[in-house]
């Protein structure tokens, strides 16, 4: 054999695999963004770690080492062991931990309690409270810190200007209240309490009320229900809140800075100029906390108990009554609290800008308006008096408005980049969420969010502010840092929404060959508009108020947040208050716009009519060691209706999706017609959209943002194929001629659409004309435009229009003849006996005709302008079928399409599917676990269990001649009777049996049977199989199957069933199972053995009886209206030659035959 062939084949296989990999957009997205995010996340970390060892000229490390360059560990030694270690490291670290823990407690207690009251009580004014509560988080982080200063500071205690309480009432709060840990914890806790409210409130709101109702039914006290049932459900939300708040508080700079608390972030800023390397160590410590938080989150996800708290049949959540007066008293307290945290800051900042001097609140107790001033706003010249320090007023201050423009520029760019990248990450991870690389990309994208903002800013400062690359004080650096930091906002928002979106929504478009860009812009993004817009707006609004991340990357005055800090240090508190006011108003306006946008808004092809044969050869699909499909060989003939039948999880849907191209097999070969669509050895994997198949999904996968018409037409707009050259004007003229030849009928159809008030339903008239004359909507509108129904002589008007159409048709034929062609009956150009073709798209006329044709087939013509949500389940099913049929697929796949319908509608749709199969001439492959559907619909049943093909035969063959105990047990209702028996073959070929606790019987096979030879042949097959498996096991690439195949153990019904401990002796060749269908049990007075009626269930046409024979129970069906009493004595025989004999040792069919009871 030529050895070069495998090499070429291997190279081709690798090339094909690469082509297949890169043909899927989510793979490309994950690969590119994984590399980019690794660089943008890891490179800054590497840079800052390197900076801790680097010697910086003019800093403490240069002084201690006596060198101006090189690397050293002196920064670590000095920071951890010097006499200032407590001041520079341990005290800030301890304060940071206390601040983070305290903020978590305040946020969880305040936000969680608020969420509980809003969602689970009869609290008053809920709508207002829930809207106002999240304001502190929307506003800049330092807002409440500045307000705290403005209210509680006093000159006597803090040495600053008097706050509101000191100036107006003479109240002087103690130092611990004004500055330090306590106010920082309260301010940050209030700021982040929105996290707890959103996360905990979401679980409270969606929790299945039945969980609590079950406890109530058991007379459980409400407090016990709360602590033992309700609160355990919200543990995941509380843990998420703690992780988010802890990581955010860890890197907070503005709050501890304004409130005088020394933390790692404030100490970093103070050390950075003289102790540069040691400051970098502090940043690394903050980063380590971020990484630890991420690891804790991953561990919690693995160890967390999985609770199902949302179901489809939940009742209304029970509300705790706060009392008639209590609901208003508690609401009033919350209104006051939220006023001070949400509304008062805006009022306070506005008021501060009109004070003549900081802390001068004389207006409040004098009421004299002369004690207010507008100088901070309206001064148009640079002056040094009146405390202006040479600055123009806010309205004329170029520093402020230049910073405002810079802030908007950075925010917009960060939002666009972070939103787009995050959306792509969310989409790609959702498509490949089982992939380790996808999980890696998701984790790397989220890591910057968990790292303290100041530490991230420090890392980017070190990476991009050096002699090789200096981007300091540029918008470019701010945009890079902001994008990397804020990608998690968009990626998490996108991922959550994409996971909620059924994969079938996009797969329905893939099957119809819709390009990826069009799928994203026309289906996925419109459906998930709210979440995706949030993914853009969250980075935008966060960037507007960011200080910790940007303060090290630019000078003061570059953007608004650093400009605010600049004016605050100058003592121009009115300016900083004005900037705060500008930021808050900008953020609130943007937030309002987002809510407005995202709130309430939500064929005629020259086909080959011969359907292809489908062939599967050694197809396997596994995940790890779990084999979903194991070495499947299957041939599906053209124009067949095959049902894939089996229990849940047996591999039916996986098989279907592999044939369709929606799932990639692990190995094997799939052929559709003469085209190989998958071959693992050659690396061939034709995408689903190129296999020319249709797929009807279990949940219909209708696009909710499109009408019925657009759902059906959408896939047709993507078809670009070699199609006949059609003269559409001639075709339309011919259609209109047929209508005009029957003017009276046309008028009658239109007038049937006039209601009792004499108003014409134009849409209904269009539909009736389309259905009657099989014309397009365009032609129907033309007919309506002639107004035949309004004419006194419709025949005359029709005759005139008929002459025009006939002339147009003759002109078209003459034009065609001039080109040496003629028009055939479909109005296609024919030359020399061949239809002329060209590669083109379908015209709107062709699309409309196709849509109307399939709509007639499934009878949905009147629903074309409705949205899926406005249809019943059966109507949605018909739309899904019409959409699947419109592109005229060669094969139609259906994944349990009737499972969501009620029993009556299911029966009707079975008839419809049978009719469709005949009308379309397509090959249908249908997945179900309902044997009734399989038996009534299929031309062949493919029965699968544990990923292995059990039997592939016509329905009656599967029923009457099951080749194993499993098949016999699975097919049939009532189920087959299994009877244990022992016996030996006699010389005449019959088998003498002992069964039913001592009943003697003879089994006579229908065909000649050598039982000993049968067992030898079966043993040889088993031995050959074991040898193949042993040979495969030697291959290092072979993966042993975890879900092992075992012999089916049938259930023998008995009156007193003993518990099965699995310790029975191994069956021998003399142990059998007799299978008797219920209809073969004949009750008569001359029956061979006696039994007793154990139960009787009459249904009208038949009665199902259970008969007790000793300790055994047999099920029989008696046709006709026969009544039986429980305990009645009866006699019975086994009738007919359809009794099945199985080997108990291997569970396989031995023979069909008859049983004579003695």
Descriptive report:
A hairpin with a 2-residue loop joins β23 and β24 (1112-1119). The strands form six sheets. The chain has a six-stranded mixed β-sheet, sandwiched between helices. It has a six-stranded antiparallel β-barrel with strand order 17-18-19-27-26-20. A five-stranded antiparallel β-sheet has the order 2-1-4-5-6. The protein is globular and about 120 Å long. The protein starts with a helix and ends with a strand. The longest helix has 36 residues, at 85-120. It has 1158 residues and is α+β, with helices and mostly antiparallel strands.
Derived from helix and strand composition plus strand pairing, the structural class reads: alpha+beta
Q: Give the helix level as a range of percent.
A: 40-55%
Q: Give the overall shape.
A: globular
pLDDT < 50 runs, ≥5 residues: 1-8, 303-316, 599-610
Tally of contiguous helical segments: 43
Number of strands: 27
How far is the N terminus from the C terminus? 66 Å
**Average pLDDT number:** 82
> How many strands, which pairing sense, and closed or not: the largest β-sheet?
6 strands, mixed
Rg value:
39 Å
Q: How much of the residues is beta strand, in percent?
A: 5-15%
Oligomer state of the chains in this structure: single chain
Task: Write out the strand line-up for the largest beta sheet, numbering strands in chain order.
Answer: 7-13-14-3-15-16
